[in-house]
Amino acid sequence: MDFLNAIVALANFVIVPAVAYGSQLALGALGVTLIYGILRFSNFAHGDTMAFGTMVTILVTWWMQSVGIGFGVLPTALLALPFGIAVTALLLLGTDRVVYRFYRRQKAAPVILVIVSMGVMFIMNGLVRFIIGPNDQRFADGARFIISARDFKEMTGLQEGLAIRTSQGITVVTAVVVVALLFWFLNHTRTGKSMRAFSDNEDLALLSGINPERVVAVTWIIVAALATIAGVLYGLDKSFKPFTYFQLLLPIFASAIVGGLGNPLGAIAGGFVIAFSEVTVTYAFKKVLVYLLPESLEPEGLVQLMSTDYKFAVSFAILIIVLLFKPTGLFKGKSV
Amino acid sequence: MKKLLLATTAAGLVAAGAASAEDVKLGIILGFTGPIESLTPAMAAGAELAMVEVTESGKFMDGGKVEPVRADSTCVDAGAATAAAERLITSDGVKGIMGADCSGVTGAVLANVAVPNGIVMISPSATSPALSDAEDNGLFFRTAPSDARQGQVLAEVLKEKGIMSVAVTYTNNDYGKGLADSFTAAFEAVGGTVTGTTAHEDGKADYSAEVGALASAGGDALVVAGYVDQGGPGVIRAALDSGAFDTFVLPDGMIGSALEETFGDEIDGSIGTVPGTESEGAGIMMKLIEEAGIENGDGPYVGESYDAAALIMLAMQAAGSTDASAYKEKIMEVANAPGEQIFPGELGKALEILAGGGDIDYVGATAVELIGSGEAAGGYRELEVKGGELTTVKYR
């Protein structure tokens, strides 16, 4: 019984939140990694692209709620998601046309593109704050829980409760579906194959007649979809505030780099590595140990490696360790 | 107009010693943006209510007018608050400041602006124990009690309810840290156990990590020494969602209508304290607020704001001068016995008594009694969430 309680406590406070957070990071990191692989630069505007997509989705969600369109137990935001993706895709294609294409034609060094993307980041940042404001926005509706802590306790008779929020369930399911679709697209369609060819060897791809502008456009559209989905899932699960999306940039980049930049599989693995380390390093294990250990060995303190204030430091530390020992990431990516 | 004003001021100066008609500006520096932005409009309106009352009585400095000037303290940004206070004094020429609100910015404004410029500051809501010993040249007062007292009250309430083990989380600033420390000390003194203490940063999207650590520490209830417009509700939401805690102990920063709107009856049984008294004055104040139609007038610190503004004006009247170095000595005098008791809405009468050389004991909306270096002795209202609403249990 104690053993079960320990497992449930661990699941409630570590595993469930980390899996949901990891899925969100993985989707974000996939976007970063695709841009790095195909367009060959680190896109600093990714966090704010997520914020922009989420903002459009929120505005459409509010409109739907006001005219009475709902999605039953699921959040209305899922219905509004396609609109968010469409508008974000237009924005990204527009940015590419106005900004990035100019530098691409000049064959600008990646480092210049990074700085350019930083400029784009500030503009998007301002745009989002200008339209929706800097404050917290609530847009979640539908049922809050798949199973609440209280129900779980009653069902199982355990002392510990396990809560799974609807948003956490949706996050994981959506992430799996999106990743499966993305891999199918990259591996089995003509466009996907041409993207991979372009990523592997640009000159060879051009020689074999691949239209580079088309590849770039498709990449931006996919990135818009990934960013918007990641942003909306994060917003549903936590809350939407432009500044927190800007802060997400660090763990997302850490995930992409840890997994190996340019490698989609690595991005997913990296997302979960970062999420699990952030959560486990800052979790106080006292409760779990009290259940597991005999009474004489019960810990006095909280058994917490690091205060929760240092959450972001964890992603930094992992990033540095990986770059020191495995510059191309856990899965073979491109070196930074 | 400006010339006319100058002329009257000059005339006032010539008529040495005698109180004379003078238009006075008072600064109201509160966090109109930031973590307590939902509380401050009603607080400012409370202070302005006192100023309008004094102006309309026509007895202030022989018919002088009092004009409020608002400025934004932001509650958290000491630099912005200092700049705002500097502007009040140098460009608006205020003679006294009602504010600031949060403890951190209040300390900054006091040290950087009020003391160098020699301006009196009365804060309605800065409650950090550290401000009691701040270097103030006798210029700083507060109509709110120090959190050292709130910590004791919370500890007593918990003891009476039989809650003897709690976890504590506080917003990572002067207010949160001071309150958490004073509560921990007081609670351990009455025999309670604080299982764990974790700070939380305001403005984050997700507090599940903090709550995870607190849940691991355990306890019968969670003390959330935070802000109702910032991280506080996020912490409570995460604790409810994960089933970690369902009873919360909420000090003054967490009490507000936003709490009822967000959680409703989900937090039934939770306990709160907020400065407040059962005095006659509180009832009269409520009536004044209703007549003036102030939105959210039943929020915290509205009466304290009224009292803070009133004290500045009464002390000016008693000293017969708007010069801070003269009237700062009078503030304790008008606030405390002996003298005729003054309730809200009776400022005209008080001004008349003072003009005649009499003595008053300002009771005001919050039974003002200044102790020590000039802070309220502190009555508290004990609250409980019942059926989704904050209801008053009793005063202590």
Automatic annotation (TrEMBL), chain A:
It is a multi-pass membrane protein. One of its GO terms (biological process) is L-isoleucine import across plasma membrane. The keyword Metal-binding does not apply. The chain crosses the membrane at residues 6-39, 51-73, 79-99, 111-132, 162-186, 215-236, 312-331. The keyword Plastid does not apply. GO terms for cellular component: plasma membrane. It is found in: Cell membrane. Belongs to the binding-protein-dependent transport system permease family. LivHM subfamily. This is High-affinity branched-chain amino acid transport system permease protein LivH.
From TrEMBL, chain B:
Residues 24-331 form the Leucine-binding protein domain. InterPro entries: BCAA_transport, Leu-bd, Peripla_BP_I. The keyword Transmembrane does not apply. One of its GO terms (biological process) is amino acid transport. Keywords: Amino-acid transport, Signal, Transport. Pfam families: Peripla_BP_6. Residues 1-21 form the signal peptide. PANTHER family: LEUCINE-SPECIFIC-BINDING PROTEIN, PERIPLASMIC BINDING PROTEIN OF ABC TRANSPORTER FOR NATURAL AMINO ACIDS. Belongs to the leucine-binding protein family. This is Leucine-specific-binding protein. It comes from Pseudoruegeria aquimaris.
